[in-house]
């Protein structure tokens, strides 16, 4: 009995000390947001950070599933109108009430921030916001639009009273940075730190920490040593090379999970003579990548398991399509393609390239995890089936411009490219629409289709899917589009899904997010 | 004298002008940041809007002309990434870099001069040989690697000093700096030491060479024969004479200390101009790159001008020659 009592006192002491310790948290971030203004820059570091201060109508959890945030319910009331019921009793950080007027104001402001290097127009275009009563909103579109809730997970709601006339500088200084989220803004010293404090009136789960300090630490080794030295409690983007070493540290807790980012290959399918492909003697040949058998041969030549095991240190998942299982609209039939170099050689011979050809693989060397090493491994695998592949990698600032618009008339410059795609909407239409739908400026489709793959069947399925409000039917259409575009056409070749890793002190563990974001609300006591 | 200053100022403006053309053309040749700034899910229309908004759809000559027009009104453009004036971003981070450079200069002098004198006075002792070998290491070891080693040893292993960032800031005599707080000093020590290593090595070598030369001079022999104590000889006669070349070099190299703090700032996540310029180069944030280089060049030109003027004041030969021309 006495032992038991002593034990319980001991446990209580541990809990007390744990909760006393849990008041402050310092986070080492790889990428600093470029602004506190949640509508200034539509890019991951900014939107991930803004979630601490601001809320959205629809929340997006660690698996990009939706949950009620500022809206408690949403449903289509007819083909072109969605109704959102707003949460009642929500207070802004300055104590004022949240109402439908704030949502209407946000929809207007988010599309019109001056100098925005990437705006929220992408998610708000063609939508009319209408206030029905103080806590009901209707959003109208011209055509049926099933992805409304997905789009509403992206736009952070700002207050009308603080936001009217406010510039991006006003948000950066804190004057207008009034949100409804779990933490309140205190201070931003660019390049140095961002400080937040808990919002005691938050409508959701109580914030677990009193004070948050975000420190941008760009260099990977510096981020890890800051964690080991106890200068920060939690870091993101742990490089795969360091994972094995950190595993042996008792004071460190690693948290990792597959992301929605697929690493894949784009292949020139629109030029008869592709600039970086020649016969082995250097003479010009007809672009072999136009032939589906060659693309299939290339896919079979990739030993995905070896790439994951050796290049990625085991920290990746072989990919058979554009999104891992579990996401809406993925196909249940598609597995990673078998490694079969003999079949590849046969396919090449059938296509009339028994002797192979020469090509250059282009890729970035500082964008995706181990990107340059992946490109080199691929080149070796292609050499085994007779394709003489060389590798040219470059910094992302140079690479992406050339890959999208480096050729004549702003056409893609390269023939064979290593790229990655993270499905921001958390479902299959995002990669299908951008990577595999025919390049069509007037429809806003295929914007990142750098191989210019084009198949009318795929286009029709994607468009039909994007106009189907019924979720199951839409999922089937998108899965079918993937099966044709990736499975039959080899329009792009998936390699693997990235795995993101976070590290914290052993007091906490992080619930890994598929969208690769770092959100303190997902950090749990260990 | 005024003619000299006037002529030098004109030359400086020419240098700035040529430099701005080079940087503008160079960054333009490399590419633009649109594809990294924009959300990948944006459609073609939005991509074109961003290119238009940043003015990148215009011919480069036109972009440069607008830059020049604005620059003459003191506006060096807005950062593509942050959307704030480039000049403001740089000035915001200038104090952090200056205090880092000053403190590392202090460390370099504090260690460099005594070690150099010792090595000069006793060139054959084991300690002196160790000092000289150390100074070669200081020259040749990569800053990034040394920085990580310092962090691993002093911050992770021993836990004595913080590994990252700038400490608390306090105001003293109207100057806001982290050098006025204990927390700030503990933060600045490792990065400053890292940055100081290279300078320290050159000061050691300079001081040693000076000492070796001066110690053989007649007035030292005379002082010795006068029966002066060794300390007095070193502190008065020797130190005063070796300081002249050392101070000149330190003055000139202070500029390079500021310009080359980039690596140290990146390793230690020090929120200075160096980290800003590295990030801006990675992002091809042209307005910030151009503004930063203009400021650095101005700074160098100014330092050189001051040194030249001081020389013409101190050294009559320069002045006479200048007048004859």
Q: Can you characterise this structure?
A:
The complex is a heterodimer of chains A (526) and B (325). Chain A has helices at 2-21, 44-50, 100-109, 121-124, 148-151, 160-163, 168-173, 220-228, 240-247, 292-300, 304-311, 341-350, 371-384, 396-405, 429-436, 456-466, 471-488; strands spanning 24-29, 55-56, 58-60, 66-68, 71-78, 81-86, 128-133, 136-140, 156-157, 183-189, 193-198, 211-216, 234-235, 252-267, 277-278, 316-318, 358-364, 388-394, 416-422, 492-505, 508-510, 523-525. Chain A has 17 helices and 22 strands. In chain A, a hairpin with a 3-residue loop joins strand 10 (183-189) and strand 11 (193-198). Chain A starts with a helix and ends with a strand. In chain A, the strands form five sheets. In chain A, strands 1, 10, 11, 12, 13, 14, 15, 16, 17, 18, 19 and 20 form a twelve-stranded mixed sheet that branches. In chain A, strands 5-6-8-7 form a four-stranded antiparallel sheet, with helices on one face. In chain A, strands 2-9 form a two-stranded antiparallel ribbon. Chain B has helices spanning 2-30, 34-37, 44-53, 60-72, 86-121, 126-140, 143-157, 182-214, 218-225, 230-259, 262-267, 273-282, 286-314, 316-324; strands at 170-172, 175-177. Chain B is globular, with a radius of gyration of 24 Å. At the A-B interface, helix 7, helix 8 and helix 14 of A face helix 2, helix 3, helix 5, helix 7 and helix 12 of B.
Based on CA inertia axes, which overall geometry of chain B fits? globular
Counting DSSP E segments of at least 2 residues, the number of strands of chain B comes to 2
How many H/I helical runs of chain B?
14
Spans of at least 5 consecutive residues with low confidence of chain B: none
Give the number of DSSP strands of chain A. Answer: 22
Q: Tell me the greatest interface.
A: A-B, 59 and 55 residues
Using only CA atoms, what is the Rg of chain B? 24 Å
Distance between the termini of chain A: 28 Å
Q: Helicity of chain B, in percent?
A: over 70%
Spell the H/E element sequence of chain B: HHHHHHHEEHHHHHHH
Shape of chain A: globular
pLDDT averaged over residues of chain B:
83
Helix content of chain A: 25-40%
Q: Note the quaternary state here.
A: heterodimer
Radius of gyration of chain A: 25 Å
Extract low-pLDDT stretches of chain A. 1-20
């Amino acid at each position: 009995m006495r032992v038991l009592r002593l034990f319980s006192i001991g446990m209580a002491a541990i809990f007390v000390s744990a909760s006393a310790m849990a008041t402050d948290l310092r986070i080492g971030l790889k990428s600093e947001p470029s602004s506190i203004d949640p509508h200034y820059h539509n890019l991951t570091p900014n939107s991930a950070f803004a979630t601490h201060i601001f809320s959205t109508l629809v929340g997006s959890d660690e698996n990009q599933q939706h949950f009620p945030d500022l809206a408690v319910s949403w449903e289509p009331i007819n083909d072109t109108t969605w109704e959102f019921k707003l949460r009642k009793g929500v207070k802004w950080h300055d104590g004022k009430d949240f109402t439908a007027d704030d949502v209407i104001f946000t929809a207007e402001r988010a599309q019109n921030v001056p100098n925005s290097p990437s705006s929220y127009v992408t998610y708000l275009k063609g939508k009319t916001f209408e206030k029905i009563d103080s806590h009901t909103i209707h959003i109208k579109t011209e055509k049926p639009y099933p992805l409304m809730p997905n789009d509403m997970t992206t736009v952070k709601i700002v207050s009308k009273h603080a936001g009217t006339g406010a510039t991006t500088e006003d948000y950066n200084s804190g004057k207008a940075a009034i949100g409804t989220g779990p933490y309140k803004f205190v201070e931003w010293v660019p390049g140095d730190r961002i400080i937040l404090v808990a919002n005691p009136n938050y409508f959701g789960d109580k914030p677990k920490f009193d004070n948050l300090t975000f420190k941008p630490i760009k260099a990977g080794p510096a981020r890890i040593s800051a964690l080991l030295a106890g200068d920060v409690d939690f870091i993101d983007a742990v490089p795969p090379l360091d994972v094995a070493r950190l595993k042996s540290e008792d004071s460190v807790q690693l948290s990792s999970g597959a992301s929605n980012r697929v690493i894949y290959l784009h292949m020139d399918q629109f030029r008869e003579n592709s600039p970086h492909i020649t016969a082995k003697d250097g003479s010009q040949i007809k672009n072999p990548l136009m032939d589906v058998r060659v693309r299939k041969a290339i896919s079979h030549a990739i030993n995905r398991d070896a790439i994951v095991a050796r290049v990625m240190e085991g920290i990746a998942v072989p990919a058979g399509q554009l999104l891992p299982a579990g996401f809406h609209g993925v196909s249940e039939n598609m597995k990673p393609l078998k490694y079969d170099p003999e079949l590849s050689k046969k396919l090449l011979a059938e296509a009339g390239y028994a002797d192979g050809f020469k090509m250059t693989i282009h890729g970035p060397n500082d964008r995706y995890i181990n990107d340059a090493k992946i490109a080199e491994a691929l080149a070796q695998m292609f050499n085994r089936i007779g394709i003489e592949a060389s590798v040219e990698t470059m910094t992302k600032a140079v690479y992406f411009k050339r890959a999208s618009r480096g050729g004549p008339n702003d056409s893609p410059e390269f023939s064979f490219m290593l790229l990655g795609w993270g499905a921001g909407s958390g479902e299959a239409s995002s990669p299908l629409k951008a990577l595999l739908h025919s390049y069509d400026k007037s429809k806003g489709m295929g914007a990142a289709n750098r191989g210019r793959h084009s198949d009318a069947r795929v286009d029709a399925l994607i468009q039909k899917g994007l106009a189907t409000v019924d979720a199951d039917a839409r999922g089937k259409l998108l899965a079918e589009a993937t099966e044709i575009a990736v499975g039959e056409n080899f329009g792009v070749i998936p390699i693997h899904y990235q795995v993101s890793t976070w590290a914290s002190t052993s007091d906490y563990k992080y619930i890994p997010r598929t969208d690769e974001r770092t959100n303190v609300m997902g950090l749990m006591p260990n | 004298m005024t003619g000299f200053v006037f002529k030098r100022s004109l030359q400086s403006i020419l240098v700035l002008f040529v430099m701005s053309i080079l940087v503008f053309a160079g960054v333009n040749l490399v590419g633009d940041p649109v594809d990294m700034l924009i959300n990948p899910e944006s459609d073609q229309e939005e991509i074109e809007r961003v290119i238009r908004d940043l003015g990148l759809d215009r011919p480069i000559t036109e972009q440069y002309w607008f830059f020049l027009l604005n620059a003459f009104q003191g506006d060096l453009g807005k950062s593509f990434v942050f959307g704030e004036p480039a000049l403001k971003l740089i000035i915001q981070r200038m104090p952090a870099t200056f205090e880092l450079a000053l403190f590392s200069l202090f460390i370099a002098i504090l260690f460099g001069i005594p070690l150099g004198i010792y090595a000069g006075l006793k060139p054959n002792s084991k300690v002196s040989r160790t000092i000289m070998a150390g100074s070669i290491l200081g020259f040749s070891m990569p800053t990034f690697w040394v920085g990580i080693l310092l962090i691993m040893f002093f911050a992770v292993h021993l836990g004595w000093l913080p590994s990252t960032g700038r400490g608390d800031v306090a105001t003293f005599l109207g100057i806001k700096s982290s050098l006025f707080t204990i927390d700030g000093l503990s933060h600045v020590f490792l990065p400053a030491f890292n940055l100081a290593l290279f300078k320290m090595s050159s000061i050691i070598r300079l001081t040693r060479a000076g000492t070796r030369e001066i110690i053989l001079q007649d007035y030292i022999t005379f002082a010795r024969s006068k029966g002066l104590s060794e300390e007095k000889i070193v502190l008065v006669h020797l130190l005063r004479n070796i300081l002249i070349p050392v101070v000149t070099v330190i003055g000139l190299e202070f500029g390079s200390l500021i310009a080359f703090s980039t690596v140290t700032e990146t390793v230690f996540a020090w929120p200075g101009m160096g980290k800003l310029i590295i990030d801006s180069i990675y992002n091809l944030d042209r307005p910030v790159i151009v503004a930063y280089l203009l400021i650095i060049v101005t700074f160098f030109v100014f330092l050189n001008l001051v040194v030249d003027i001081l020389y013409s004041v101190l050294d009559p030969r320069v002045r006479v020659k200048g007048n004859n021309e």
